[in-house]
Amino acid sequence: MATAHPAYEERPRRRGRKVLITLLVLLLILGGLLVAADRVAAGVAERAITDQVSQEITKQGAQSSPPEVEVGGFPFLTQVLDGRYERISIRLRDVRGSVNGDAVALPELNVDARNVRASLETLRTQQGDVVAETVNGTGTITYESLAALLNRPGLTLGERDGRLAVTAPVDILGQKLTLTGTADVTVGKEGAISLRFNDVDAEGLPNIPLARTLLSNYAKDISIDVPLPDLPFQLAVREVKPLPQGLAVTAAAKDVPINSAG
């Protein structure tokens, strides 16, 4: 009759489990180290690009808070070796430029650069071009900035039903009335924003042609083309849309250097 030896059979199994567990732990540690190294390298690149973007903004005569740069795509190190990056996101806050002495404010401009070419030497020395195949920008122009450009006391702008709405006090034939209306907003020549207040009225307006003419003249006076400051990265305005927080601006460009070449 054969005698079973369970103790001897279990020891090899336990040793096998320990080896497997140890191997898994080592692989996890190694993977964690590689990920950490990858993120450290991405951080170094982000700081280098941040410095160069700041130089580019200053060069164009614009002002903003320090840019926030994030390099997308994983793993990062393979992108470094290839000299091509999937995506670089740049956030600019409090972007300002001077237009005829009046400030046109962009509280935030988000720039999404795709297929960015930048050699390792460029990132290391900050000499050379960092070029994006496509660049898309989205930002918002405050209604307060637009109202300041129109320079009419008491005039306020906002959004109503997806359109640009205006409210303003007016004096028509000695009567103090409140003008209300909406404007057509389009992209005009050279990227300017075209405001056309074609639909205006005032409660209590005298029912005579002269009163209507005076109201129409006021609407024409505030129907202007608003020139924007030069946007960074050669961005050209493609669309403007009224939103509750302001006029949303969408811009785009192709084959753009996003740094100041050394």
The class by helix and strand makeup works out as alpha+beta
Determine the N-to-C terminus distance: 89 Å
- What is the overall pLDDT average? 77
Q: Shape from CA axes?
A: elongated
- Helix percentage: 25-40%
H/E element sequence: HEHEEHEHEEEEHEEE
Q: Residue ranges: pLDDT <50 for 5 or more in a row?
A: none
Strand order of the largest sheet: 1-2-3-4-11-10
**CA-atom Rg in angstroms:** 30 Å
- Largest sheet, described in full? 6 strands, antiparallel
Number of strands: 11
SS summary, helix count: 5
The portion of residues forming beta strands comes to 35-45%
Give a quick summary of the entry.
With 262 residues, the chain is of the alpha+beta class. The chain is built from five helices and eleven strands, in the order αβαββαβαββββαβββ.
What do these coordinates show?
By secondary structure, the protein is of the alpha+beta class. It has a domain at 145-226. Helix content is 34%, strand content 41%. The protein is built from 5 helices and 11 strands, in the order αβαββαβαββββαβββ. The chain has helices spanning 6-59, 76-82, 120-125, 143-150, 209-221, and strands at 68-72, 84-99, 102-117, 131-141, 156-160, 163-172, 175-187, 193-202, 225-226, 236-243, 246-257. β6 (163-172) and β7 form a beta hairpin. The protein is elongated. It starts with 5 loop residues before the first helix and ends in a 5-residue tail after the last strand. 26% of the residues are buried.
